[in-house]
Amino acid sequence: MSSAEIPAAHATFLDHALRFLSTDHRLVGVAAAGSFATGTMDEFSDLDLVIAVEPSDVEAVSAERHRIAAEFGPLVAAFTGEHVGEPRLLICLYAGDGDGAPLHVDLKFVALPDVAERVDDLAVLWERDGRVTRALQVGDARFPSPDPQWIEDRFWVWIHYGATKIGRGELFEAVNFIAFLRAQVLGPLILLEAGAQPSGVRRLEAVAPSRAAELRMTVASCDPAGCVRSLHAAVDLYRSLRQSRSPGRVIANQAAEQAAVAYLAAVAHQCGVA
What we know:
Layout: H1 8-21, E1 27-32, H2 34-38, E2 47-53, H3 58-63, H4 65-70, E3 75-81, E4 86-94, E5 103-111, E6 123-127, H5 131-136, H6 148-168, H7 171-193, H8 204-207, H9 209-216, H10 224-245, H11 254-270
Parallel strand pairs: 2-5
Antiparallel strand pairs: 1-2, 1-6, 3-4, 4-5
Helix pairs in contact: 6-7, 6-10, 6-11, 7-10, 10-11
């Protein structure tokens, strides 16, 4: 992205951060991922920064991550990313200037060779002697793509699980489970169908508006009727996506499908849902 396309708060933060980082001899460069790299940044975007570190200095720099992050602006909260499987990540929130909105910034400190292992394309913002650019040439970005057969082998067991939660009256668990189906199955398959990166349900409304209308039917209210109807909608949408994405390539488990759908119908009847 050009500087003119970056929101002012993000541009100001980057200017401060890059000035500071470039003075630390242990650091090799900084690259941006996410919406910065794809040119889709807006005022609501996070900043996702990958900071390349000399391999011999990774341990020392990691120990100083909070101090380093505090140099970039008014840091009001920061914690590491073990909950998303990435302990190298420091997730930060910075207070806005004046009446400005707070800014979410992800800082991932990695050894220089490790920048090649990435799921997103990166835009190099600053580097020493082209070293980050050369490191990125080792491999391509690879975002994990859902395996349609892997999903089929599990989907009907999941539908049965959701129906049992409705039948038992664990409605919060049922609502949460249907959200899991949206994020892990339906959303990624819709985005793949649209030729987009299968990242959960991110930007799905804009990328696939007609499918978004179908997906909206899977949003459950916290009552038996709402959960049953949403789970039925998930089944219908999955069947459509299975045919659209992989006709003839996925071996459907018809026995599991029939059993799960019949059980869902029985639970619906038990709950008095037409």
